[in-house]
Amino acid sequence: MKKILGAGLVGGLVVFLWGFVSHMLLPVGEMGFSQMPVNSPLLDAMKQYLSAEGLYAFPGTEVGRKQTEAEDAVWTGKYKQGPTGLLLYHPTGTDPISPKRLGIQLATDIFGAMLLAYLLVAIAGSTCAQIPLAKFLRVSAVAGLFSWSSIEIAYWNWYGFPCAFVLAELIDQIVGWTLAGLVMALLWRRSERRAIRQAERIWEH
Q: What is the pLDDT of residue 168?
């Protein structure tokens, strides 16, 4: 457990730093996004007609009430005609980057890294030094691929998320978790080799 907790902290920090690089220094964070003009009349219309925070689907249905067949037919026709989409709406503003949001992101990265560390330790067994580094990298990359495919493909398929956005998430997940797995494996190897050298010195004395 100590091995998992320590590696999870380091691996989570690696993923967090990769997120900074990919979103602030590379164009990955902007892939798939289209920007609404600051003075768009749609913003004023949303303030007028949308008062509650939420994720809105359009064309929408009345929540909590079963539609009749005629209403279903009308909704299906409007959906086929378009436009369709999702609108994530917050009526009040906030800081785009805040210490709270950064803290939550770091905490979730650490939690994910601990899960990956548990998986790698379960595969390696009692020692990690004898496991080829390439195996750790493959498992970490597959873990990133799994986290991406289990969510993003469904978002692309059902909600029409832009292909560029889905691709950016693929890059983020695979690179981030592969780097985390690499750093954790190197950390374990260094720790185990240090322990072996200390044991050898004790045995010699």
A: 96
pTM: 0.85
Task: Return d(Cα 99, Cα 103) in angstroms, integer.
Answer: 6
Bond before 37 cis per omega within 30 degrees: no
Task: Supply the pLDDT for residue 200.
Answer: 59
Dist. CA 67–CA 61, nearest whole Å = 8
Beta-bridge partner residues of 55: 88
In order, the DSSP letters of 151-195 are THHHHHHHH---HHHHHHHHHHHHHHHHHHHHHHHHHHHHHHHHH
Amino acid in position 57? A
Chain centroid to CA 107: how far?
12
From CA 39, how far away is CA 138, in angstroms rounded?
A: 47
Q: Which residues contact 16 (CB under 8 A, 6 or more apart)?
A: 105, 106, 109
**What does the alpha-carbon distance between residue 167 and residue 32 come to, in Å, rounded to a whole number?**
8
Per the listing, tokens 């989570």 go with 12
Lookup: tokens for 78: 């409007």
